[in-house]
Structures are given as structure tokens and as C-alpha cells.
Amino acid sequence: MTVSTQAPPAPARPAGDPDPGPGSATGPGTGLDPGELDGLRTVRARHPWRWAAGAAALVVLVQFLHGLATNPAWDWATFRLYFTADTILQAVGRTLELTAYGTVLGFALGAVVAAMRLSRSAILRTLAWAYVWVFRSIPLIVQLVFWFNLSYLYKRFGFGIPFGPTFGDFETVGVLGALGAAVLGLGLHQAAFAAEIIRGGVIAVDAGQREAAAALGIPRGRQAWRIVLPQAMRGILPAAANEVISLLKGTSVVYVMAIGELFYQAQVIYGRTGRVVPLLMVATVWYVVLTTVLSIGQYYVERYFSRGARRTPPPTPLQRLRAFLRSLPARTSGGTP
């Protein structure tokens, strides 16, 4: 007995009927004729719970904004008085200064520690792991207080031959003051996290990239600088920017060292005036503004390093706004934008 594997022929179409095509709902095998869909009505899918959740969220937001505007306890007059006061602006500058110093020191030292963790030397790997373990385990405020009191342990520091004679020494108090101790504590604490961020970005790069570069005879330094690092930056940047923002907010911890950063200065003012809530709002709004600026910078830096992964970089918010404004005439006239 012979089994035929041919499909049955399609029914003949009347002359003049267009070919419905393979993806049509009225094509062969669907059981529907073109005329059967003429009377059907298209019904848009409804999502009542989605609309209810959105409406409830809007009600809560509007109620909160109404409370901000009408509750006299917020004391917006005091907020406006101190938001741009000279003492607050100087404190904002000191906060940015601490953030910049901590970021530069932290990521410079973190790159060294990450290189040690990726080294083939067991000694360097162990020392780097121990550094990360210690500085991630101790709270930042404890580290700051420790470095602030370092002169209690070491009255003088000297330089010379290890375990031998010294060529000169200096007093610890005269070199490591409150600001120096704060920068040192913030930088060493940040380095432990920066090292893991950099190491994670480097090991995320495909090993075949390094193998291909080695097969082409490219030196190891050039491999790291021109091949590995540009690809690793796409993984490093989001976490690194998050750490910088955390450091910006973490500078508020140095109030224990009586350094005039933003939160400490707000404390001094509301301790003198008794206006706690408006001064806390001054510090809060300034932290929000600074964080927003850093987030915008993060977006453009990430967009720059995405060139190797995307043929066309994503449009910036300004470019999207311009495109929307250009499409408004077509939208209002009912045409296709």
C-alpha cells in the first residue's frame, strides 16, 4: 500500500478575488470566507483594575501635594529664607568637595585593589580580598571616628628604612585634621566597593576577547586599555554612579566630626532657631538637586560608552522633546506623525 505525502490541493478561488496571503485570517485552512468578517465589530480590551490603581495613586499624590501646600507646619517661608543662604551654599560646596575627594581617592585605590584581586599572585589576591572584607564589614561612621582619633594611637609618623632608622617625622595632628580624616575615611571605605565594581565589570568581558587579542600579539597593557576596559565600562558605570550618589549622601555622616557639610549646617541652624522641619527640607531638596545632576551626568556618560554596543546611540531627552514638538502639527491635524 502506498501512502501519499502530498497535501490536498487548495480550493479554487473565484476569478477576480485577491489572494489573501499566507498570514490572512481568511486564507486556506482557516475555514473563514472574506465576507464572514465584514459584520464583526472590533472591541478594545478593557483594563478596569489598571485604571482604578492609577486613579488611586493619583489621589494619594494629589492629597500629599495638597498637604505640602496647605499645612502651616512645613513653614515654607523659613525654607525660602535659608535655601539660598550663604551658610547653606557654603555647606553645599563642602559636600561636593568631600564627594569629589572621596570619589577620586576611592576609585583610584579601588582600581589598584581590583587589579590585585585579578592578579595571578596568591599574596596580592589575599591582601586585596582582606582589604575588601575589612572595609566592607566596618560601618562608615566607625571608620570616620577611628581616623579622626588616629593621633591617639600614633603621635608622630616617620619615613625611612622599614624596621630601621627614620629620616624625618611629623606630628599626626598637624597633618591629619578633621577634613583630612574625613576624606581618608570616605576614600578608603569607597575603595572597597569600587574594587568589586571594577572587578565585576572586567570579568564580565568575554574571555575570548582577551584570547583573540593575545593571538594577534597585542601587548597586555594595550589589551586592557583598548579592548577590555571600554567593554567593561558598560557594566561598571551603572553601579559606579550608584556608589557616587551613595557617597554624596554618605557625606552627611561626617557631622560627627563637626565638619560644616550640608546636614551638619542644617543641624546648627535648626538648633539655634528651633525650625527643624523647614531646615530638614532645605537639606532634603539640596540632596535631591545634587543627585539629579549626577544622574543626568550618568546618563550621558553611559550613552557615550554604549557606542560600541549600539549602531545608533539612544536619543537624549532633549532630542526626544524636539521630535515630539515637531510631530505636534501632524497630531493635531489628525495625520500620521
Question: Could you please describe the fold and organization of this structure?
Answer:
- With 337 residues, the chain is mainly alpha-helical.
- 65% of the residues lie in helices and 3% in strands.
- The protein contains 13 helices and two strands, in the order ααααααββααααααα.
- The protein has helices at 48-70, 76-83, 86-117, 122-137, 140-148, 150-153, 172-175, 178-203, 207-215, 220-250, 262-273, 276-305, 317-332; strands at 156-160, 166-171.
- A two-stranded antiparallel ribbon has the order 1-2.
- A hairpin with a 5-residue loop joins β1 (156-160) and β2.
- α10 runs antiparallel to α12.
- It is flat and about 100 Å long.
- The two termini are 63 Å apart.
- Mean pLDDT is 81; it is low at 1-5.
Topology (elements, then pairings):
Blueprint: H1 48-70, H2 76-83, H3 86-117, H4 122-137, H5 140-148, H6 150-153, E1 156-160, E2 166-171, H7 172-175, H8 178-203, H9 207-215, H10 220-250, H11 262-273, H12 276-305, H13 317-332
Antiparallel strand pairs: 1-2
Helix pairs in contact: 2-12, 3-4, 3-8, 3-11, 4-8, 5-8, 8-10, 9-10, 10-12, 11-12
